Amino acid sequence: MSARIRRYLLATTLVGIIGASAPALAQTSPAADVGSTEPGSPAPGIQSQESAPNEASSSGDVVVTGTLMRDPSIASSAPVSIVGKEEIRLRQANTAEEILRTLPGAVPSIGSAVNNGGAGSFYVDLRGLGNFRNVVLLDGNRIAPADLFGRVDLNNIPLALVERVDTLTGGASTTYGADAITGVVNFVTRSDFSGLEAAASYQLNDRGDGRYFRGDVTMGGNFADDKGNAVLSFGYQKADPVYQGARGFSSTQIDSYSGAQGGSGTSLPASFSVGSLGTRQLQPTTGALVAPYQPFNYNPYNIFQTPFERYNAYAAAHYDVADDIEVYGRAMYSKNVVQTIVAPSGVFAANVAIPLSNPYLPAAARATFCANNDFNAALAGIQTITAAQCAAGAVATNASDPNYRTFSTQLRIRTTDVGPRVDRYETQVFDFRGGVRGDITDHVSYDIAGSYGESENYHAQQNYVSLSRVRDALLSTNPNTCLSGATGCVPLNVFGSSGAITEAQAAYLRVPATSRITTSLAQARGQINGDFGFAVPMAAKPISFAAGAEYRKYKAAQEADSLAQNPSELGGAGGAITPFEGGYKVVEGFGEIIAPLVQNKPGIQDLTLETGIRQSHYSITAPNSPSYNTTSWKVGGSWTPIDAIKLRGVYQRAVRAPNINELFEPNSTGLGSLAIDPCSGRKPVGNAALTAVCLGQGAPAFTIGSIQDPSSGQPNTTSGGNLQVQPEKATTYTLGVVLQPPIIPSLTVTVDYYNIKIRDAITSPTAQDAIDNCFAGLTAASAASSVCTQIRRNPETGALDGDAGTTGGLFLGLSNLGRLKTDGIDLGVNYRHSIGEAIINLSFLGNWTHKQEFQATPTSVNRQCVGYYSANCGYSGSIQPEFYWNQRTTFTYGAADLSVQWRHIDAVKQEPLDVVANGNAFADYGKIPAYNYFDTSIRFRVQPSFEFTVTVNNVFDKQPPFVGGSIGVVEYNSGNTYPSTYDSLGRRFSFGARLTF
Q1: What are residue 639's DSSP bridge partners?
Q2: Cα gap 510→513, rounded to integer Å
Q3: What was the pLDDT predicted at 67?
Q4: For 8-24, how does the pLDDT look when each residue is reduced to its tens digit (9 = 90+)?
Q5: pLDDT for 714-738, tens place per residue?
């Protein structure tokens, strides 16, 4: 056993020892659901299934996560961790993503801290195997997805009505259908709500920014002589941005490998390609073109907390029309507005033509262009006009003048005077569900339900510069009119510093673009549930079963206007938004059996078998597209030799069908993550094989020796869907033990080992994989190899970045060739005791991840990324430490609660393969020590109907680790740190009040 594992187990043991020192308190039943927080309420903290009872949903149905059974006395053989409403209230969480982001066993996914790369929705990623390999449920049912990948936006979860959040990891396809390879997150709403509850909270950071307001009103009650119940809830939230420029550690972008100021090659002052001289930057004071360039510091414009506004409504009701017939329904609506703000737009390595007589062109720059640029010559870098011709061209203001000349150059400029790029995402989602259920016999019940939901994500791109208008505005020979005569065209000055572009010029460049993603999910399910009315000879409890059929129909479409579709038109848009649509239908039959085999015998208090199977048929809604059948199954069980010990385990064969994006998305060029290009700098000089490969990928001969690394560490990448991909398959199993020793009442300890292996995984190579597949072990034949020639370089500069319309960059094709694997141990401890008139609650949930491997293709590197970080490490790109735990201690005395939460993140370091590819990170940027955060909450019940809560997150104002801004995936390595994993906002105060009647 390693020393680190021993430390992990020791920390857990200490929790139990501390709790054992107090006398026991008998467990009490949960309080009535009117928002009470009296001592009898479920304890705060993250609990195991055994120490937190399953509750009913808002429609009165019993929800048991992990099984189709509706018997609340049944627990799934797979481990389930539970976050109850008391924990949510103590944290004063505003969105479901905030809760799941810090859950041991999950890794931070796209959320409020993801600025560049988010699309207005927040997701969960269980086990770090991808945020589209799990299923998010509301009361055990799917709801409308938010995007083309079929993911549920956690912003739409009605958190005010959530009773608990159940998380089951390790595969659940048999119970919940495809996509649940890594598990499910089930939000269970509060049952039979009666009364009125109004809650409000306000949050701000220690530095006075990051304000966040949330308010909710929930009302409900019984009707028709208590035959029915209805509940209605409304909510509103608003969050202000926190800019990276407002924090000292993030105000300047730092290169992770050199320690120097980094940033973007698309700079201000502007840079220009000048024939064989390569790229030169303008010096505004002299008008000269000089090298090297000063990179653009984009950090101050970027943000750590995305601006967010949300309106939501939720309603549910159920009514007993007869003694054994109940009708029920629920409806939800949510409108979310999220703005991602990034550094200003501009021209990102696009070819432009400029007259020698441009009114803003400095004389020194003109002379350099005349001496080095290609004026329609066969070879670049050959001077084709004399000094006299250059001078004549400088005063030729009419295009019909024989002396009029233009030169071509690749322009890079940040148009700071236009303002930052703002992507506004407005999402509206509604989802309705209705059904009828009742009893067929004393032992068998039925449930028939259907639902329909739609989501629309409207995307407005603001302050993006139109490349066609830039080109038009540069073709001018006076400061007032453009040669094209286009209405509204204002000649553009790209030869100055900040302020050189006037508002009139900026207004002409701004062209808003829009796109839209719409998704829908229609589903119907019929199920019978019950028991056979008899038990096996050695058991007392009858055999339970569930069986039924399910139908789901997914549709999705992406639309875009002509500007958003053009890969070259919007400066800094990252590529085109390509319209497409698609869908698929699935018909499934399923069944489960839970059979007690032996009960109440010596050495066997209970021995239960659990098994299930689901058969699915998928039909893709496209001409000549494939259809396929899949089978998922599980077998597991539990053995309780004595009351204090329960052994459990389950083995599953799971599947995940390709989603709409993986099937239908056309190939398009976007941005990836890569720090160093093998063809950059002087590396090809004197290396014939390397030079041949660089040339074969489209680099012009004159650029060899001067090719630059990808600007901002973002190369162009080309990828898309593939109608030929098939469902991926997984084998998962968990083995665990539950300890509830009678000598220590109220103590529950759970230890579970999990193992997930995915084969035929639908994956794309990483950017480094694409580089390694070509450049590792170069030979004379490499230049003609398909793995090399499918990489397409900038035809002007030879780089891997530039105009998406002409530079394909790295090809990252989708296939079924991937493999994913992870395993580890989850450890949970929960304890509740009395100390005189006080109550102490202790909870602990920790995860040890042994390994997490990802191999995109058989020739790709098999990466083991637990405890490491790099631009290619981790399937999701987020950090996955070896150890992660949360521990909460809550002390209740009378009407007051004092609670402390300890969050531990283990040490991580630069991935060894990244060291080989890019060299050691600068100084200590290649390692992050273990981090410990402490949060406190104080809650006062001023009166039985009123409570006030103060929460302080990151009590000691611990600053995030500083690793520079180019060592990781762009979505997660931002502001010189990893803001989704570590706290970049600093100490935060939350003030909340709750009033109940």
Answers
A1: 607, 647
A2: 10
A3: 75
A4: 333 333 333 223 323 22
A5: 899 999 999 999 999 999 999 999 9
CB 893 within 8 A of CB 838: yes
58, pLDDT greater than 50: no
Would you call the peptide bond into 269 cis, given omega within 30 degrees of 0 as the criterion? yes
The structure tokens listed for 115 are 């600025």
* Three-state SS at 594: strand
Q: Are 766 and 717 in contact (CB under 8 A)?
A: no
SS3 119: coil
Using alpha carbons, select from 772, 803, 764 the residue that is nearest to residue 669. Answer: 803
pLDDT band at 73 (very low <50, low <70, confident <90, very high): low
Could you tell me how far CA 946 lies from the centroid of its own chain? Answer: 36
**Pair 55, 577: CB distance under 8 Å:** no
Q: What Å distances lie between residue 974 and 14, 212, 227, 301, CA to CA?
A: 37, 22, 54, 12
Cis geometry, peptide bond prior to residue 72 (ω within 30 degrees of 0): no
Exposure string over 619-634, b if 16+ CB within 10 A, otherwise e:
ebbeeeeeeeebebbb
In 3D, which of 997, 993, 888 has the Cα closest to residue 941? 993
Task: Annotate 597-609 with b (16+ C-beta within 10 A) or e (fewer).
Answer: bbbeeeebbbbbb
Predicted local distance difference test score (pLDDT) of residue 779: 87
User: Token match 């994913």: residue?
Assistant: 820
Question: At which residue do the structure tokens 């989708």 appear?
Answer: 814
573, 466 Cβ separation under 8 angstroms: no
Mean pLDDT, the chain, rounded, equals: 88
Q: Up-side HSE of residue 677: CA atoms within 13 Å toward CB? A: 35
CA distance 179 to 150: 9
Q: Write a three-state SS string for 356-377.
A: CCCCCCCHHHHHHHHHHCCCCC
Q: Provide the whole-model pTM.
A: 0.89
Q: For the residues of 751-772, what is the DSSP string, one character each? A: EEEEEEEEEEEEE---HHHHHH
Q: Where are the domains of the chain?
A: 245-295+344-422+461-512
Q: What share of the chain is helix, strand, coil (3-state, %, to 5)?
A: 15, 45, 40
Contact 797, 707 (CB under 8 A): yes
Half-sphere exposure of 301 toward its Cβ, with a 13 Å CA cutoff? 21
Please give the backbone phi and psi of residue 908, each rounded to the nearest 5 degrees, phi first.
-135, 165
Distance CA 431, CA 109 (A): 24
pLDDT in tens, 255-299: 999 999 999 889 999 999 887 788 899 999 999 999 877 899 999
* The residue to which tokens 């007589």 are assigned: 357
